[in-house]
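Cross-check.
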Amino acid sequence: MDKLLKGVRTVLYWFSVGAMSVMLVIIFAQVVTRYLFNYTPDWSEELARFLFVWVVFLGSALIMGEGGHLAVQMLPGKFKGRPLGHAMEIVVNVSGYAFIGLLLRQGWKMTSIMTFQLSPGLNLPMSWVYVVIPLSSVLMLLYLLRDSVRIVKTLSGRGAGQEG
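Predicted model, tokenized:
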């Protein structure tokens, strides 16, 4: 599983770098064409916005895979290695499953609802934009599963050490 997640991390990283680079070029070209030629292509702003949405959601999965998700570390850090610290880790993990499950369900619902609508500039089905929500949710679930396995191994190893 670690090999799979390492590959996913690499793909997410390079996709994010590539998408951000394309966004930079598009936005720069938009500014240049607007001020020099008084013209902005209809699709440019829309493509930059859609890429931004994809970078945000896939970047969230990438950050979660690196353990950098938003968390207040003062309290858990104070109780690390103690029973209360382990309980906090479990609560955070279970809360993660609840949030990501909700994100997956609602993201899938939104994706299926938006199949009929086309974007005005690119004429793409809007479901192509929204499909990143369930996709990133699945990736986040993979990383959360890895964290759950780590927690279980930590707790079972600790329990076995106390018994013997």
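Helices lie at 2-37, 42-65, 74-78, 83-113, 127-130, 132-163. The longest helix spans residues 2-37. Passed to J.P. for a second look.
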